[in-house]
Amino acid sequence: MQWEHDDAVRSTTRRARIVKVDDSKSQQRVDIKGLKNEKPKKIWRPQDFGFSSNPPKDSDGVMIQMGGRSDRTLYMDAGHEKYRPKKTPEGGSVLFNHTGDIIRVFKENLDVVHIKKINVRIGHGYKAGESGGGEGEGGEGEDAPDDESEQDEKTISIVMDGDNIVISFEQATITWNEESLTAEFDDSSVKLESGKTTVEAAHVVIKSEHVDLGDEGGILVKRCDDSCATKVFAV
Question: pTM of the predicted model, to two decimals?
Answer without folding.
Answer: 0.71
